[in-house]
Design a protein that fits this description.
By secondary structure, this protein is an alpha+beta fold. It has a domain of 81 residues: Beta-lactamase Inhibitory Protein, Chain:B, domain 1, CATH 3.30.1450. The protein is 24% helix and 24% strand. It has four helices and five strands; from the N terminus they run H-E-H-H-E-E-E-E-H. Strands 1, 2, 3, 4 and 5 form a five-stranded antiparallel beta sheet that branches. Strand 2 and strand 3 form a beta hairpin.
């Protein structure tokens, strides 16, 4: 009986030290997708950017007009799966002026957001009005 108990105790203690320990994945920060980055444009307000990308992880203490979005993923399975992505945006007078980081900016990024549409001052008449 003592022999069986000692075998079971040794087997359990060895299995606890094996490499079969489950480790969880640890995601931290702002997970951004390229489709969200494609929606931002120069001239957007801070509130509009926050609506599209969410609140930033870090706002520079000395420069409130610089927002940093950081995402870090630490895999519990393999270090090859670990990743980190950074994205920084800058504002001037509450308007987005630049962005840079690990994402590509869309073709429309440099097109000012909500530019006023020029209005034609001439009155356009329809066929019914002209007769």
């Amino acid at each position: 009986m003592l022999f069986r108990t000692s075998i079971i105790a040794v087997a359990l203690s060895l299995s606890a030290c094996s490499s079969w320990v489950y480790r969880i994945d640890i995601p931290q920060g702002n997970y951004l997708e390229q489709k969200s980055i494609d929606k931002i444009q120069v001239g957007m307000t801070k509130e509009q950017v926050k609506f599209v990308l969410g609140s930033p992880v870090m706002i520079d203490s000395f420069d409130k007009d610089t927002w940093n979005y950081v995402y870090r993923f630490k895999s519990g399975r393999s270090k090859k799966l670990d990743m980190q992505k950074n994205f920084s945006i800058k504002f001037e007078e509450d308007k987005l002026i630049s962005a840079e980081g690990d994402f590509e900016l869309s073709e429309n990024f440099n097109t000012p957001f909500n530019i006023p549409v020029p209005q034609n001052k001439e009155k356009i008449t329809t066929k019914d009005e002209g007769s």
